[in-house]
Design a protein that fits this description.
Number of helices: 8
Number of strands: 0
Shape: globular
CATH superfamily: Globins
Oligomer: single chain
Helix content: 40-55%
CATH class: Mainly Alpha
Number of domains: 1
CATH architecture: Orthogonal Bundle
């Protein structure tokens, strides 16, 4: 894929649109019950979990704001991890299975997109582990949604 000069697509556009993230998370969470490391984490998963995660990731990657328009927020996403005591082994397995699934469902494999995808997944999974520790509280309700793009590392929050 190549973008016309001066017309840089969002990561969501480059990936093929918001529906691709639905395909990714649906397939990923279909695998989780058979994974001995991840199954305990998601044992009582809400049936809508994959859909909510796909909307969140699509929005973070510059797609539709479906997650936040349907009442979700960054604070809500963080709150789902509070007190969960996620381990480094679970984080690594989640990341490996997600990248395996990205290949399986045909997400772009060019180095630029994959670098952005891996960067976000590394950042997000590390934040999830930190937020799962005892004593962590959810950020304030007005905390902005992460916004990830093609740019240099330095955090996902950008001022518009």
């Amino acid at each position: 894929m190549s973008a016309p000069k001066g017309d840089v697509p969002t990561l969501a556009e480059w990936a093929g649109g918001d529906a691709v993230f639905g395909k990714l998370t649906k397939r990923f969470y279909e695998k989780v019950p058979d994974d001995p490391v991840l199954e305990p984490v998601f044992r009582n998963m809400n049936p809508d979990h994959a859909h909510h995660v796909s909307q969140f990731v699509a929005e973070v990657f510059g797609g539709a704001k479906s997650y936040s328009e349907n009442g979700g927020s960054h604070a809500d996403m963080v709150s789902h991890h509070l007190g969960r005591h996620l381990t480094e082994a679970q984080r690594r397995r989640w990341l490996a299975l997600m990248l395996e699934t990205a290949d399986e469902v045909g997400l772009p494999d060019d180095p630029e997109f994959r670098s952005a995808l891996v960067g976000y997944l590394e950042w997000g999974t590390r934040i999830a582990v930190i937020n799962s520790r005892d004593g962590v509280t959810a950020p304030p309700p007005g905390t902005p949604m992460p916004c990830w793009d093609w740019g240099a590392t330095g955090g996902p929050y950008r001022g518009d």
